[in-house]
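WARN no homologs supplied; continuing
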Amino acid sequence: MGDLIREAYNRCKVDEWLEFGDDRYVDLNGLGVRGTDHSCIEFLFEAVDLSDAPSHLLFSGFPGSGKTTELKILARNFENSNYNVVYINTEEYLNLRVPANISDIMITIAAGMDRFLGESSDKGQTTPFRRFWERFRSFLDTRVSVEKLNVKLPEIAEMELAFTKDVDFKKRLYQSLEGRLPELALECQEFLDECLGILAQRREGGTVLIVDSYEKLRGDAAVRASVEEVFVRDWEYLRTPCHAIYTVPPWLTFMEAGATTEFGRIHILPMCKVSDAETGKPHEPGVQAMMEILAKRMPLDDLFKERAVLHPLVVASGGYPRDLLRMMRELLQRARLNKLPLPLPTAKVKPIIDRVLDVIGELYESPITDEDIDLLVRVAKDRDITGHTRADLQRLADLFNYHFVMSYRNGDRWFDLHPLVRRSEKIERRLRQPDE
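OK structure emitted
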């Protein structure tokens, strides 16, 4: 029993995205449970492939919804069509819990390109080039006085680490660069131009930058404002000389910035539809698709006497893969603690599932404040986020960050509460009250 449960538990890690070809992948888009339209990935690919000039696109999705996995598939599709693909994980360069400005993003792009070419160079696949951090150190030496910087410049080999980890250094760095944004942009642009010249010798299709994980930026109003500044006020600095796809937080789609961004519409990855928007009843194709996610990770028939016992977990996940895996890990832990025999008896599993829903549900219920309730109830009743005030939208951004409100698509886009929020006693009590 121990080995089967252990293997299943470890194949359900919630913070792990899947590489192309991973046997755990389930094509939710192909199954039609993320909408009846073409997938975001198809739209992103065609927007790049059809364009005779660099295209710059925005993509969004909740962490754990499969966004990075889909981007990895997109990257493989580009490579198969003769594009160079430079994938940059912004988490490796930025603290995504504090505001990030346009300089952060420009330096991150240049640093990501530097790492990509540097790794190729180590394998003897790239023409020698002047590394970005060497150029950046030289830029600071010639453009910024040490007195104004008021901090010792690190050696070239330490520049990346200082930029990534030293908050005080970065703060002083940007203070010293105030008013020099065009010069910094030119430095990054010239570096990218040189790199793209090298990459042009490899593939004829061009180069695509995929700048991932920026959608994980979250925090207070200052953090949200920094995102809007990057994509509305300073968007021209993100027009790289090659195709680029940027991930952004889901809440940007319904904020004012989402309507005014020069990058066009934001492609958002919907959740798997496990409930009907009109009736609230389980949507069987979606339920089966989420069950397939579990079946790809474990031998369900060896572990459970009846697969159907897991349906309440699937519905309670709201079609959010991360929460389904989180609840399954909790279930497996408790089955092992109770020393249940395999396959797990249905009568013994049902009370465990009830307890799992209570435990994970508490994670959603505890942060609900009194000021959230009216807004959450309106979303629950309307299945939409229209008709709200500007202040409401700011609060909705927080609710998206907490995954209290989720986005779906089948035909039109619609919204709903996470099922574990909907079953909260606070929300259920208000939903039972008649409309005034």
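The first strand starts at residue 56 and ends at 60.
OK
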